[in-house]
Amino acid sequence: MRLSLQSKFRSNEVGVLEKKDMTDHPDNQKLENQGSGGDSPVDGKRRCTDLLFLLLLVSAWAAMTGVGLAATGVIESEHIKKGDPMRLVNGIDYFGNLCGVTNYETPSGEDTINLPKAYPMPSGFSVCVESCPSETDYDKFICEYDVQHEIDSLFETSELVGDVVSDDAKKSLYLFYAGRKQCMPQVESMSFLGYCLPKLPLDEVILTDSNTTQDNSDTNSTEITTDVSIPIANKATSAFFDMAMADLSTVRYVIFGFGCGMALVLGIIYLIVIQLPGFLSLMVWSMIIAIDVGLVASGQYTKGVSLKWA
């Protein structure tokens, strides 16, 4: 009995001593203000430790602000031409007018400032339209301004207006100009910024129009006859981008799933890796050097291009 009490007393004494040692450990001490010159996080006097990088950051801000002001025309510069930020979001027609921005009157009397969307033509250029087609209709066409005005004027003064023959002749004329890359059927399109993006691949539009022309050739009783397929400028490139956009639309959920899942996994791995000794410093300095080298290289490249284009 006496031995058990002594052992119990000794164990309690050891526990108190261990607890006292843990309390006295520096990591368990409360942070206090150490006055001037101390390294405590709560030190009252703070100072900038990266003065050089602060100056570089302020210089970069000032330089980019100056470039932006010169590019937008706020500041006149002999070396930086005034740009138009609206070109980034608004479509441009084949005359160089900004759809919905430029005040240009078409031969039909419409003003492009009231036509905010750019609809693509087979030539690779665009025309400004009021809105993107909401459905596909191969009996209706969108043409270049002068061509549309010519067709409208021709059939407004024609004696065949209201006759079925007039509709067939008008469609044949549209197909004729489509073969010359000046007209395009109305294809259901998605509005993206200032552009109309056809939901139907351009190759399918060509095939459908060719079949439509062939079907109507037997019943067309006018003298205007056409057997035309709509050629597309840079057809291979257009088909590539059409297929690329279709593939992205098909796998959008897979991309979203991998984007979230892989981002979570890589984020956890990143948090583990940055705890390795010296890795964080290596990563930071590598990024700084890589960004500086990239900026210098891109600056030299753009300077060479500007001198070549001057």
Give the structure's gist in a few sentences.
It is built from 8 helices and 6 strands, in the order H-H-E-E-E-H-H-E-E-E-H-H-H-H. The protein is mainly alpha-helical and 310 residues long.
Spatially, the strands of the biggest sheet line up as 1-2
Instruction: Tell me the quaternary state.
Output: single chain
Overall radius of gyration = 36 Å
Strand content: 5-15%
**Considering DSSP H and I runs of 4 or more, what fraction of the residues is helical?**
40-55%
| Poorly predicted parts | 207-237
* Straight-line N-to-C gap: 104 Å
Structural classification: mainly alpha
Main sheet, how many strands, which sense, barrel?
Answer: 2 strands, antiparallel
Total number of strands: 6
Mass-distribution shape: elongated
By DSSP (H or I, 4+ residues per run), the number of helices equals: 8
Query: What value does the average pLDDT take?
Result: 75
H and E order: HHEEEHHEEEHHHH
Describe the structure.
The protein is mainly alpha-helical and 310 residues long. The chain contains eight helices and six strands, in the order H-H-E-E-E-H-H-E-E-E-H-H-H-H. Strands 1-2 form a two-stranded antiparallel ribbon. Strand 5 (189-192) and strand 6 (195-198) form a beta hairpin. The longest helix is centred in the C-terminal third of the chain and has 31 residues, at 279-309. The chain is elongated, with a radius of gyration of 36 Å. The termini are far apart. 16% of the residues are buried.
